[in-house]
User: Fold this.
Amino acid sequence: MSVDPARFLADLHALRAFGRDGHGVHRPTYSPDDLASREWFAGRLRDAGLRAGIDGIGNVLGEAPGTGPRLLLGSHLETQPHGGWLDGALGCIAALEVARALGGGIDVAAWADEEGHFGAFNGSRSAIGDLSEADIDAAANRDGTPLRAALATAGYASRPRLRLDPARYRGYLELHIEQGPELDTTGQALGVVTAIVGLRGYRVRFEGQQNHAGTTPMAHRRDAGAALVRLAGAIAREFPTACAPRTVWTVGRIELEPGAPSIIPGAATMLFQIRDTDEAVLDRLEALLLRLAAEEDRGPCRVGVTRLRATAPAIMAPALRAALEAACERAAPGNWQAMPSGAGHDAQQLARIMPAAMLFAPSIGGISHDVAEDTREDDLVRSVQALADAAAQLLR
Assistant:
């Protein structure tokens, strides 16, 4: 099946105009630009002959008419703050182009809030029945806006939420930029995802004693900031002895209270994250984190660890992977590879109710979540062609 490169690239650049920010895009979930992009995308789906609408959480779904075998393709439309123009957008426009090229059998989705402005994968979780009304009540973005209020402002609050029927589909496919340097560094044209990482996120809280920085002797201090630094150092020393080859971990935010140069911090907080494709590795590193925190808790400061988030790894479906691999070999003979995804994607939520697989296009320099994010046009076209080829094979 041949896609139309000019039509595909024109739509991809048209979507870029919603919230354009220099070379990148600023299109946070439920912002005016995000809402406008969802209406525009629903319109493009209708132009392609699909029945399209937007549900009560902001998911866009276009359903192909007729009967017969179906595949679901998609990704997300919103971006990180001041982020890239291809993250999520590529998968949505590619799904639209595959639906047009195949002329039937393809449903297209744009999931809401994959980027986590109001939570974790709210749109795809809602579609598989894993987002409760209580979850929606509890959710808010970083500036404190409740999800309920954002949905009301968007005009979505009174709409029903989509619930997918997995019996309708042979599976779910998602095209995405790699968001890492491996394909670009090795010169590979395409990547077929083997598994998507699971994620564990934590808040580590240190309680000490606020005091005068000039008059409190070092031996008398209960410095919460110093305790935080010691734990971070222990993690840096110990985690490499217990991790797997592709495990990553990040101290993403540090806050000292009150954060003044002449005051010993009485409290400190760090947000910490671990990612791996093996649940056993995540369990092992979580246990190590808790042990290191308990050791620091025996010092002058109290230390508490709260798990904020846990997303399970997802293994991609063998039959769908095989179709993508065969398509990659036709599109780029000998110039593709199988690889895990170090980033989370909606595909790992869909994989909980149906077979799912992912295809990667290279990211120039491995840059993503930044306005400098980019991919060469020939790589973009090759990736959507491979996606269409695999979809056609699976529908046959």
In short: The chain is about 35% helix and 25% strand.
